[in-house]
Amino acid sequence: MYTPPLVDGVRAHPCDLILAWAVEKVGARCVCDLGAEIGRDLLQMLNIGLIDYGYGVDNGAHDDFRIGNVDVSDELAGRIYLEEGSYQAALSHDPPQPFDIAITNNVLEHVDYPDDLLLVAMTLAPYAVHTLPFERNHWDPYHRHYWDVEGLAALCERWGEVVTADQIPGGNMFVLMKRRVA
To answer: What is the model's pTM?
Structure first.
């Protein structure tokens, strides 16, 4: 089990810490969040100076967590763009610099076609990190898929090189992947 390091200013939830760890590990400054909900992860990373620009897209399936409910402060204007739509919408977004990493935080288990999401992530950026519940957590009726760490790594290997995959505290797991060089 991998325990992510604490990052000053990042909520101490293991999934948030894994995202911050991956962003730091690959030196990412421009981040795409697929399934961003209200953009909390991007806002958090922007507020502490971990990234320079964040783009988030979400389909608005959860009324409480809709991108349209977010007010971006004047100090972050131009540094974050939040859009309601499918994760494929990210393919037509024009960031100020190429995306360094695509992130998903507890999204992959909710989508009908996880391979589509992984393909979009690897098309957008040279790295991607995904957090999701460990397969033993069958508590959410909206989960369409369940994996263990090995199964998740095998799924991701079809779309990129798995840099690391592990379980983290709190009943979650993650995979950091890298685009294959053609």
So the answer is: 0.91
